[in-house]
Design a protein that fits this description.
258 residues, alpha/beta, Rossmann fold, binds hypoxanthine
């Protein structure tokens, strides 16, 4: 589980903190069990405790490498998003479906050529359909409605967008906007891990809202949506299973390595 803004912990049993050395730096995670389940859950806070790491400086490669190293097979990430579409209302929970990448400065791959090889990883279905199906099932069972099929625009941040940028993203088909899903989703796929994002709509995007955007607004909105998301995550943990009908594990079969 990768917790985004507003989600800095999950209730796990026998919790321990572990540091993992990766070629990209050290990563600290929490590991525990959920209820009576034997399988371990790894929790990672994307922005660190107290939101200290901005989106463009998150060490995405170290984070994903550490999860792979720990034997994680399925990642559920959360993200706060602004809405570009009247379909996505404040407080809605959204399963991301596609992304438009407008990041600028982030290493996007583990495959840097030379000994590491080159991988042109398939992104036809960036977010894992199997994990999404389980999250949808969890939503149905606890009565949390989910919006699906959303195209997420990933901006570089840390600034918010201009209204002109938001209009451009709308024309391009973007429905929500955030600063973190790319390259996280790409790196997870390069490692053959399943990855899905539960996004929470915290604000109307710049220029749609009739007021300037603040991080405080995002954090306050998360208090309501975050409760719904926490219930959804717990139910997802309860019913998550090994079977999957996705091809995520095969994603790096051409080149292998990681
Ligand atoms: N823009 C970018 N990132 C965000 C937003 C937004 O409006 N809301 C939450 N994360």
């Amino acid at each position: 589980m990768i917790g985004g803004t507003g989600l800095e912990a999950v209730a796990l049993l026998d919790l321990r903190t572990e540091s993992i050395a990766t070629p990209y730096g050290k990563v600290t995670v929490e590991i525990g069990r959920f209820e009576a389940h034997d399988e371990l859950i790894v929790f990672m806070s994307r922005h660190g405790k107290g939101h200290t790491v901005p989106p463009h400086l998150v060490n995405y490669r170290a984070n994903i490498w550490a999860l792979k190293e720990l034997g994680v097979r399925k990642i559920i990430a959360t993200a706060a998003v602004g809405s570009l579409s009247s379909r996505l209302q404040l407080g809605d929970i959204v399963l991301l479906d596609q992304f438009l990448d407008f990041t600028k400065s982030r290493p996007q791959t583990f495959y840097e050529g030379g000994g590491q090889g080159v991988l042109h990883v398939d992104m036809t279905e960036p977010y894992c359909r199997s994990v999404q199906a389980v999250i949808r099932e969890a939503g149905e069972s606890i009565g949390v409605p989910l919006q699906g099929g959303a195209a997420y625009v990933c901006t570089e941040g840390p600034r918010f967008e201009t209204p002109a940028e938001i209009r451009m993203y709308q024309i391009l088909g973007g429905e929500c906007v955030g600063m973190t899903s790319v390259p996280e989703v790409v790196l997870a796929r390069e490692c053959g891990m399943c990855y899905a994002t539960i996004a929470m709509v915290t604000n109307e995007a710049a220029g749609i809202a009739d007021h300037p955007l603040t991080h405080q607004e995002v954090v306050e909105s998360l208090q309501a949506a975050g409760k719904k998301a926490a219930g959804l995550i717990q139910e997802t943990f309860r019913i998550l299973r090994h079977e999957q009908d996705c091809r995520c594990q095969m994603a790096n079969a051409e080149v292998g390595k990681f």
